[in-house]
Amino acid sequence: MAVASVAVDAATETMVPGSEDEAIAAFGDGVGVVVVGGGTIVVPDLTYRRIRPSKTLMLGHAGLAGIETDGAQVTIGAMTPVQDLVDLPAPLGPCAANVADLEIRSQGTVGGNLCAGDAPEAPRGDLQGAFLALGATVRFAADGEVAEEPLEDFLGEHSGRLVLGVSFDEPAAGAFAGLDRPHTHDYTALAVSGAKGNDGTLRLAVTGAGSWGARLPSAEAAAGDPEAAGKAALQDVSPRDDALASAWYRTKVLPALVRRVLTEMGASS
Amino acid sequence: MNLTVNGAACEIDGSALTPLLDVLRDELGVTGPKAGCHQGGCGACTVLVDGEPRRSCLMPAGYAEGAEIVTVEGIGAPEDLAPIQQAFVHYYAAQCGFCTSGMLLAAQAYLARGGSDDHESIQEALAGHVCRCTGYAKIIDAVAAAARGDSFDLTTTAVGKHTTMATGGAE
């Protein structure tokens, strides 16, 4: 049968740490290391020889999966499958439920999603907008040291850093609005997440309007008027044409999604 | 690596990074899981890992170590079809058969978690499975019938060939 031959290069050194500490040590400075989370992105890259790493770090047994909450803060391990998020409150729950199908959601991980940027067909990190709206903080290791950073600063800057987990304060209110996907395996063409903190801070963020998820500061500033906020959001993004949607279409739809999120949050708070 | 496939313990040489699909087909000769797209897009390679449907083309074999792996060969035999296989035969829910083993395993998992005969829920459960013959209506009917616990007299609906197709084919 004419299927790609997929024998893994014997030259690839495979590291399978059994704990977080072992994973941090094995990752080191990350040079030449390809991290395998759930495998949904990296394994096809290996299969089709788009990457030929000298070292791979497989996190499946490193104990990095799980969701913890103390009633005020939620902490999610990097290896937590996307499917485990679907019952969480908006924006994260409905955002996660809008990712791929049951099997892919059960295999793809939060850490992988936060490190997935642009691909030829579309931006890939479907969860990034929801985590940005929640004001999430990323916990990561670099050169053997563990550090934290706001997700906003981390996105696109993951090289040499091993994501260990992500945390955020439980929001007082949240909402998610996304375009329906033509097929379950498409990435989200455009989606907006919103969350209101217990201190009254309101954050809006978009997925699908650029290489990485992004905050919508102009829309946030005009949030009192959902109509105006929707229009203002266009100042915060420069969408591109790709296989899922044209830039033109995205600029037409973004104001409506912002409006829907703000209206829903207004109604729920 | 030590894998358990359809109840049999297997010892495998090779990288933990090798996709489970390639271990099953190339090393073990278990050909029920089909190598369709090799990138998670078609669903034909789906197997059960500890009862949960998983894309074997995306799963590094090392992640399946210690788990119970069940392929379509493990849910029934031509002379002793599982209820979901009987329903597929009865409804002629297989045409070319390439997607069938993945569909059957996703459906089997859906039934195991108490899935109902509601068509929308079935569509959600099978959403990642592509049928190139576009035989979706019959497939969903078959899963709904199995969810209701319908029983079939297959001697009047299909014999021989159809039975082989519904178990995922021989290739």
How does this model look, in words?
The complex is a heterodimer of chains A (269) and B (171). With 269 residues, chain A is α+β, with helices and mostly antiparallel strands. Chain A has one domain (67-268): 2-Layer Sandwich (Uridine Diphospho-n-acetylenolpyruvylglucosamine Reductase, domain 3), CATH 3.30.465.10. Chain A is built from 10 helices and 12 strands. In chain A, the strands form 3 sheets. A 5-stranded antiparallel sheet of chain A has the order 4-5-8-6-7. Chain A is globular and about 55 Å long. The N and C termini of chain A lie far apart (57 Å). Chain B has 171 residues and is α+β, with helices and mostly antiparallel strands. Helices cover 35% and strands 11% of the residues of chain B. Chain B has a 5-stranded mixed sheet with strand order 2-1-5-3-4, covered by helices on one side. Chain B is globular and about 45 Å long. The two termini of chain B are 26 Å apart. Chains A and B meet through helix 2 and helix 4 of A and strand 4 of B.
